[in-house]
Design a protein that fits this description.
The protein contains six helices and four strands. By secondary structure, it is of the alpha+beta class. Strands 1-2-4-3 form a four-stranded mixed β-sheet, with helices on both faces. The longest helix has 17 residues. 22% of the residues are buried.
């Protein structure tokens, strides 16, 4: 499962995140040695929290040239979106207790991602959908630098919604399903 999950994540990164330009900062990291993808095959909460804490440690104790960012993937757990959100909330608490608020930022992705207040069939949800539940651990200083160099970075979510609406849910779902055939 680990190899297959990593392959699906790499395909999603290329075909959704980079090719659709959902994150304009992702392209340089795709295929780079300092992009860390860790597949946690555990399904017990304590073991998944341990994996999260380990990733926090790896990210904050490694130079950026070795680990720029980390994707922690949970292919065998957190299948229900609300269960994932509870785990994400716990992860945020662990981040705070670790003293890494302001150093590491968490971004959330899930196969059933739903933005509050959006219709359940809105195309916008695909901006935060990933093949498996995952937490993206980002270095805040790195994020601040790339945002400072990017004109109108606050308009990225708006632009993504317009672009995804233009593609349409049917086509997005077709592309989504194609990820799992690889």
């Amino acid at each position: 499962m680990t190899g297959r999950a990593e392959r699906h994540i790499k395909t999603w990164l290329q075909e959704f995140v980079v090719d659709l330009n959902l994150c304009p900062f992702a392209r340089p990291l795709l295929g780079a040695s300092n992009l860390r993808i860790v597949v946690c095959d555990k399904s017990v909460t304590a073991s998944m929290q341990k994996a999260f804490l380990l990733e926090l440690d790896v990210l904050q104790s490694s130079p950026q040239r070795e680990v720029a960012t980390s994707l922690l993937v949970f292919p065998n757990a957190l299948h229900e979106f609300h269960e994932y959100l509870r785990f994400l909330e716990d992860a945020q608490d662990l981040l705070l207790k670790s003293g890494l608020e302001g150093v590491v930022q968490l971004a959330s992705f899930h196969p059933q991602y739903l933005f509050a207040g959006e219709a359940s069939n809105a195309a916008s949800h695909y901006s935060n959908r990933a093949p498996y539940p995952l937490i993206h651990l980002l270095r805040e200083d790195m994020l601040s630098r790339v945002l400072a160099d990017f004109a109108d970075s606050e308009k990225i979510p708006e632009r993504n919604i317009e672009m995804l609406d233009g593609i349409g849910v049917d086509e997005l779902e077709r592309r989504w399903q194609a990820i799992f055939k690889r």
